[in-house]
Specification:
Blueprint (H helix, E strand, L loop, with lengths): L5 H8 L5 E6 L4 H12 L3 E7 L1 H11 L7 E4 L3 H13 L5 E4 L4 H9 L13 E7 L7 E4 L9 H17 L6 E5 L10 H14 L7 E6 L1 H5 L1 H6 L12 E3 L3 H13 L4 E7 L5 E2 L7 H13 L5
Parallel strand pairs: 1-2, 1-4, 2-3, 4-11, 6-9, 7-8, 7-9
Antiparallel strand pairs: 5-6, 5-10, 10-11
Helix pairs in contact: 1-11, 2-11, 4-5
């Protein structure tokens, strides 16, 4: 099955056992609506660590049935994050979801050495799954939200994470474009040097289960016509599944342009953790949060 849309992932998830979702401070309409939608579709069981009276107040105003989920009453967001993270670590939940809490607090909980979800020595990264009507397949992009300026070693790990995620959602032998402003190696542009090294590593089969090319400018990664005009012979050009950005600025700008200007369907998941963790913006819609749950569910494997 070729994965062209996020809804294609939803079809895969529908055949899996229910996943258990722990929400850290789910006191916003969109998180509650996304949870309710997943529960009603028979995809999830949900534990919400939040102030019960606040949850019920929001639910009543928005006609959300909170009786479908378990609510664990907590006094503040710090406690909610700790308990939600611990629930996942102790395997009482399969997926961690961010509610109405700041990203820095949420990440601090995930990184906590005592009860967190990132194994020692592992890199924490962020990937967005983007469906744009002007492109013929689903895109996985990294890193729009966590790694500020990835080193060569970090980019290699990002690629491995994204390839693993792609395979888990049904994309076999994904094509990876390592992006820069140009498609030729420029000694003054570190991103082009990194891209060339990683591409050669792929050709020597040091990075497996994917096809890598870079440096590629953005137009080449998504347009075969652009590749033809520029006379660039590439198996990835115009057909990329995964886009690796040189830094957080370019990745974040691309993500927000896709969502705000192109009306893209998106999902956002942290990679490198022992269980899928969802990192939506507090302002993200119900749809984005629901699709993030769908992608996270697909990544939990067959257990």
């Amino acid at each position: 099955m070729e994965i062209k849309k996020i809804d294609d992932i939803a079809k895969i998830v529908e055949g899996k056992p229910k996943r258990r979702v722990a929400i850290a401070f789910g006191e916003d309409t969109h998180s509650l609506e996304a949870a309710e939608r997943g529960i009603k579709k028979g995809l999830f069981n949900v534990i919400n660590f939040a102030r019960k009276n606040k949850v019920e107040e929001i639910a009543q105003k928005n006609n959300i049935d909170t009786s479908l989920m378990e609510i664990v009453n907590v006094e503040d967001d710090d406690k909610a994050i700790k308990l939600a993270v611990k629930a996942v670590r102790e395997e009482r939940a399969d997926i961690l979801m961010k509610g109405i809490v700041g990203s820095s607090k949420y990440l601090k909980g995930i990184l906590n050495r005592e009860y967190g979800l990132l194994p020692e020595g592992k890199l924490l990264s962020n990937a967005a799954f983007i469906e744009v009507s002007t492109y013929h397949k689903l895109l996985i992009v990294s890193d729009p939200g966590v790694i500020i300026k990835p080193t060569l070693e970090m980019k290699i790990q990002q690629i491995k994470y994204c390839v693993d995620a792609a395979i888990k959602i049904g994309i076999k032998n994904p094509k990876v474009a390592i992006l820069s402003a140009v498609e030729t190696v420029n000694p003054k542009m570190e991103s082009t040097i990194d891209a060339a090294i990683i591409t050669q590593m792929s050709r020597r089969r040091q990075i497996k289960n994917c096809i890598i090319d870079g440096p590629l400018a953005m137009d080449l990664a998504v347009s075969k016509e652009a590749a033809k005009i520029k006379k660039v012979d590439s198996k990835v050009a115009g057909d990329a599944d995964i886009l690796i950005f040189p830094n957080i600025e370019t990745g974040n700008v691309f993500y927000k342009c896709a969502t705000k200007l192109l009306n893209a369907k998106t999902a956002a998941v942290l990679l490198g953790t022992t269980a899928p963790c969802i990192l939506p913006s507090r302002g993200d819609t119900t749809e984005i949060k629901f699709y993030s749950l769908i992608v996270a569910s697909a990544m939990t494997g067959g257990k």
